[in-house]
């Protein structure tokens, strides 16, 4: 008799056990949230283990408004298995999104108990290759560049097993996502039918995936809180993340009758920057139907040239409201990408009723109707992006 489906999924309990590493492991709301997070990761893991393989690659969903374990709301991420033993052609149309970025590495987070060090990180974007907006193109990815090859080329580590791709958009409604394929160029057999043993093994790996993800991301978020506490930014560059990008994470906390004011100078040269809110478990907060993020396209700057945003449970009637979607604590992530300076923002905790006393006198009022239109535009823009 084959093992029962529940026996194959028994390692899901590892993700539940990681409740001990959350900020409030006895809180029923936290427990329910972690159950939900576990189901999200389990659902995604099917793509990771069953959709494609290195000999038969195909783009599959990675992070997006459904799979929210720390995506950037401006990015749609897709992924494919690869192998450093093979060569691959990625081809199609670049679209007009701000950045199209390819990352390959030895392993994907969630698929191993400990990420390799070094992790075989290689990164390439369409700006590096001078591929113009809307252009058709192809890129050869391989461990070594073939002699005499003159086309676009990207290196992958000889031990690489994984490639993921970001479609980074600034103007969600008007920028066009790319249309791309990935092909293995080596002679490979036909894609086989999986054996019963292979299927069982992959289901077991799926069940380990949620725990492996939270092993990594809980530690990252907790590290910020332990080092600098709440409502303080800690700029960082992460190994394995975009090499052109500095992150500015923080852990936020406030009371229901309070607000947090985020304030920063802006770099003179700023090809891309953004800020987003996360829940206490490192998931991006709802960002289709909530204004939980903004970027350099949407953000409104103040008359003094600075950027100010307000986190509050209720609409504060000012520009750049960051809606925490019912949470009074969680994470913040900002990004400076290829900027000429990297200011460190500040966070000020104030009473919501006194908010305007702490903002410039000429801060505009945002009416209920203006906010309704802002959110409606966001919903349409986000839904029209490719997510699958």
Reported for the largest beta sheet, the result is:
5 strands, antiparallel
Low-confidence parts: none
Percentage beta strand: 25-35%
Average pLDDT number: 97
User: Strands of the largest sheet, in order across it?
Assistant: 1-2-8-4-5
What is the element string, with H for helices and E for strands?
HHHEEEEEEEEEHEEEEEEEEH
Q: How many individual helices?
A: 5
Helix content: 10-25%
Q: How many whole angstroms does the radius of gyration measure?
A: 22 Å
Distance between the termini: 36 Å
- Classify the secondary structure makeup into a structural class: alpha+beta
Q: Tell me the overall shape.
A: globular
How many β-strands, per DSSP? 17
Write the layout of secondary structure elements.
Layout (H helix, E strand, L loop, with lengths): L4 H4 L4 H5 L10 H24 L8 E2 L13 E7 L6 E6 L5 E7 L16 E4 L10 E7 L9 E4 L6 E7 L10 E6 L11 H33 L16 E9 L4 E7 L7 E7 L14 E3 L11 E5 L9 E2 L6 E9 L8 E6 L16 H16 L5
Parallel strand pairs: 6-7, 14-15
Antiparallel strand pairs: 1-2, 2-8, 3-6, 3-9, 4-5, 4-8, 10-16, 11-14, 11-17, 12-13, 12-16
Helix pairs in contact: 3-4
